[in-house]
């Protein structure tokens, strides 16, 4: 009889499934993230998932084609000239030898997938460009801004001083300009022994 009484009073050992730990992390993550931020805003679901998920490296595949490169592709160019401007195509199908496909994909954890593609078609007989199909290729600066983690600077750094700024600089102390008097010596001033006897 005692065993049954004590067994009723003894608490049973709780079981924690693996999903309970993940659920607890998802419930506590917003409170922790709000407490660490400077402004009290609730994080989005994407930010929560990104905070809980392990790190994934950025995946870049294919050819980057910008509007500046696309401007160099005109009907009548040879295949080698197209390859010089755009690089080797990602897809050169042997069943469609007169068509090159340039595809670019960029995947970053917690961000939307960026995917762009363009097609260059060649004439069967002359092997020159006949048609280019490229929807809205970004300029190079816009492309770099779309894949950068931090915003790009809006102004370029100043590389040279103006004449007024140069004139305002103090003269260096203790350094005198060399005074050249007479002609400088021409050629070697010492004779060296020959390398071979």
Task: Describe the secondary-structure layout.
Layout: H1 2-9, H2 18-36, H3 45-52, E1 59-62, H4 67-70, H5 79-86, E2 99-107, E3 114-122, E4 129-133, H6 140-147, H7 163-168
Antiparallel strand pairs: 1-2, 2-3, 3-4
Would you give an account of this structure?
The chain has seven helices and four strands. It is an alpha+beta fold and 197 residues long. Among the domains are: 17-53, no CATH class; 59-147, Beta-lactamase Inhibitory Protein, Chain:B, domain 1 (2-Layer Sandwich). Strand 2 and strand 3 (114-122) form a beta hairpin.
**N-to-C CA distance:** 117 Å
CATH fold-level label of the domain at 59-147:
Beta-lactamase Inhibitory Protein, Chain:B, domain 1
What is the correct CATH architecture of the domain at 59-147? 2-Layer Sandwich
Overall average residue pLDDT: 77
Q: Would you state the CATH class of the domain at 59-147?
A: Alpha Beta
User: How can the largest sheet be summarized?
Assistant: 4 strands, antiparallel
């Amino acid at each position: 009889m005692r065993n049954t009484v004590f067994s009723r009073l003894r608490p049973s050992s709780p079981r924690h499934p693996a999903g309970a730990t993940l659920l607890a992390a998802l419930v506590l993550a917003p409170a922790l993230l709000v407490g660490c931020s400077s402004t009290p805003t609730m994080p989005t679901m994407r930010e929560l998932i990104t905070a809980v998920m392990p790190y994934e490296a950025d995946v870049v595949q294919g050819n980057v084609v910008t509007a500046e490169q696309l401007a160099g592709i005109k009907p009548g160019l040879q295949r080698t000239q197209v390859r010089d401007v755009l690089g080797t195509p990602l897809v050169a199908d042997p069943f469609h030898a007169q068509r090159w496909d340039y595809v670019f994909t960029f995947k970053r954890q917690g961000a939307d997938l960026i995917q762009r593609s363009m097609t260059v078609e060649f004439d069967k007989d002359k092997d020159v460009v006949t048609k280019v199909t490229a929807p809205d290729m970004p300029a190079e600066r816009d492309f770099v801004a779309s894949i950068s983690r931090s915003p790009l600077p809006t102004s370029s750094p100043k590389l040279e001083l103006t004449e007024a700024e140069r004139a305002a600089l103090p003269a260096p102390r203790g350094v005198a300009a060399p005074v050249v008097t007479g002609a400088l010596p021409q050629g070697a001033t010492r004779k060296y022994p020959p390398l071979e006897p």
